[in-house]
Amino acid sequence: MSLRSRLVIGLVTIAIILVCPLLFAIQSLYGLHGDAVALSNGDFAASLLLGRLREGLNDVRRVELSLLFATNEKRVTAREALEREVNRAASLADSLSHFDLSRYGADVSESVLRIAQVAQPEYQAAIRNDTTAADSLSSHVFVPALDRADSTVILAEHELWTRTQQRIAGQEVAIRKAELVSIVALILAVIIAALVAAWLTRSISEPIDDLKSGMSAVADGDLKVSLRSPSTRTDEFGELAQSFREMTQQLNELDKLKAEFVSVASHELKTPLNVMIGYLQLLEEGVYGPLTEKQQEVNRTIAAQANTLIRLVKQLLDVSRFEAGGGRIEPREMNVRQMLTELEHAFHVLAMQREVQFCVKVANDIVDVVSWDSDRINEVLGNLLSNAFKFTPLGGTVELSVSSHERGVLMRVCDTGAGIPAEQLPHIFEKFYQADNQGAAHVSGTGLGLAIAKQIVEAHGGTISCDSTLGVGTTFTIILPVRVTRRSSLQRALPGAAA
Known about the structure:
Layout: H1 3-69, H2 72-95, H3 102-127, H4 131-219, H5 236-285, H6 293-324, E1 332-335, H7 336-354, E2 357-362, E3 369-372, H8 374-391, E4 397-405, E5 408-415, H9 449-459, E6 463-469, E7 473-480
């Protein structure tokens, strides 16, 4: 499965899982909406109908009283109104069957029918002014039937109220159930979505981290590193793993070829030069016969040039070996004060020969033990001190100072020599570059020492810089971290590469 397909499936799965609780909540809301509509269209309408029926029965009672106590002229109107109200009450009673109240509707209809049957005799008795008969019909038939109808309406209202309360309680239970189910469904959806996201992230981040660690190892010079991700994977990471293996194989082959070239060049260049120097020494010693003064001068010139050439070859091979190994360093714990003491002793004789004042200043707050490649750092400081003595005239001063720094240890090599022109300072760390102050040097250089020093310092995760004033002197500043892991010069351009 490709990475794109995996991402699509994972995202679609997460979307579906998160949508399911939403769909359930929407479905529950639709159910609640249906119940609310039923409540509104059923129980509420039934309540209104019972209210109208109660009013109709009250109107029947009022009209019946008018029929009894009105004059004969008005009794005709009262009789018509009574018939109209009785018919209206009968119609409303029949409508109760539409709201599951048919039993109460039948009882009310029966009472209304009894009222309708007694209304005409009561009207006839009232017309005859037979109050005794009219009152008897009213009190023994009409009013009891009307009271039964009112009682039936009250019972219907009570049953409707009970039914409404039960439905409302049922709705509350349904709402709580829907709420609980929605919360549980949401929690389960979130958990499942989190698991899917974790699986998706892991399936992507693990090979990325593996590839990142592999590239870091290659940058550190380890060309035999292997990835945990199998190249048999069918996604893009499998293709990357296969490409990474092919790349490391090719780099390993190139590294071997470069190492072989350095080894061959070391032998093929140094051997003839050593032979030449050997024969020049024999000529100087007169083994092959005496030399004239002119021949001795030429012999010494050739020997000096040959020594310069072999020194250049040595530095070139040193640069090549350093680059062939990826600029690798081997840091180990070392004592800074002991290293500085050894440097001071080593250059003390040179200072006496050149009649130059030399001192090493060490601050009290520096750490005693650091993790550096001692041979390489000695090489850097030795090169800078040699340059300082080379360009410092008689009576001058060379100083090596060491102090603490927020990024580790700060070292400065200062001299009162010829100085370097400002426009040439940006180029002094380039290979074979030599400033215009070579005339002030006691010995000519090759232009490789500072390039090597810069590579070594940056392989330690440090920085090296130079400040110089022509005719006043030069100061080289080095800042190194206290502890350095095994690293490569290939890492020096990476941000945050310092240990």
